[in-house]
Amino acid sequence: MKFTLLSSGVIALTTIVPSISAHSFIYWAAGDADPNVQGWALGYRTTTPANGQGQLPFQRDVAVFSNPAVPCRAGKWRKTCEKRVYLPTGCGLSLFYINRYHESYNPNKDKPYKKSGGKKNDWYYMTKYVSNKPFIPIASEVEKLVQWQVKYTGKHSTNNYGSLKNQQLRVKLPDNMSCGGSYGGRNNICMIRCQNSAPNGPFGGCVPIQEVQPPPAPPAEIPHQEEPAPPPQENQQDADDYNGADNVQERYDYSY
């Protein structure tokens, strides 16, 4: 993915808020350097249905910035709960990639079986929504992350009724931003992390961008100044002829 934007530019994000608890994901993003170059947040699954509000499958790719991803409730089958910890760095975790992580330990997708005449071997597979390896496939390659916080409020900052409408957000980037990361042969990479303050979250996502500096300004053109016209000069030949006429000796014949 490639995102381009001018320094001190903006990045437009489009999110869907699928429930009243403010679960959301960023599925479209573009910068102001080239709006035709578009992408999305890390971990977005285009196959995730967006017409429902349940946790699975509708929210399986939503990034959560806390561990465990799903708050624990003590009950009949769980007497104690581990403390939930906010993740101030990285790009969070999602149910989809947590499941992928645990499935990697069962690559053959083994199933329980029983031998002929033997007892059934019960086999249990439990996916716990906890992972010590949140997905950060690009953030780990970024040398320098953007460090600033901006709060956005107003009409398009939240969708309290879970109406599944697109919510657009334009983020103004810092004037002194300097992206120093590299990934996939691209330089000047930064990671933009957006999150809300939902009690069960925070939810949001990370958008990788490539900073594009504006072209250098052409050198200032020096204004052309015409030299003043010289004062009119006396025609030397005419002057010589005129002066010479005064000096001509008169030769008249007075004899007649």
Give the topology, please.
Layout (H helix, E strand, L loop, with lengths): L3 E3 L3 E7 L8 E7 L6 E2 L23 E2 L1 E2 L17 E2 L8 H9 L62 E7 L8 E3 L2 E10 L7 E10 L23 H11 L10
Strand content: 15-25%
Number of strands: 11
pLDDT average, as an integer?
66
- Count the helices. How many? 2
Gross geometry: elongated
Kindly name the structural category: mainly beta
The percent of residues in helical segments reads under 10%
Low-pLDDT parts are: 1-9, 16-21, 112-148
What does the main sheet amount to?
5 strands, mixed
> What is the radius of gyration computed over CA atoms, rounded to a whole number of angstroms?
38 Å
Signal peptide: 1-22
Region (Disordered): 210-256
Keywords: Signal
Précis, in short:
Pfam families: Egh16-like. The chain has 256 residues and is mainly beta.
How does this structure look, described?
- This protein has one domain.
- The strands form three sheets. Strands 1, 5, 9, 10 and 11 form a five-stranded mixed sheet that branches. A four-stranded antiparallel sheet has the order 4-3-2-8, with no helix packed on it. A two-stranded antiparallel sheet has the order 6-7.
- β2 and β3 form a beta hairpin.
- It has 256 residues and is mostly beta strands.
- It contains two helices and eleven strands; from the N terminus they run βββββββαββββα.
- 8% of the residues lie in helices and 21% in strands.
- It is elongated, with a radius of gyration of 38 Å.
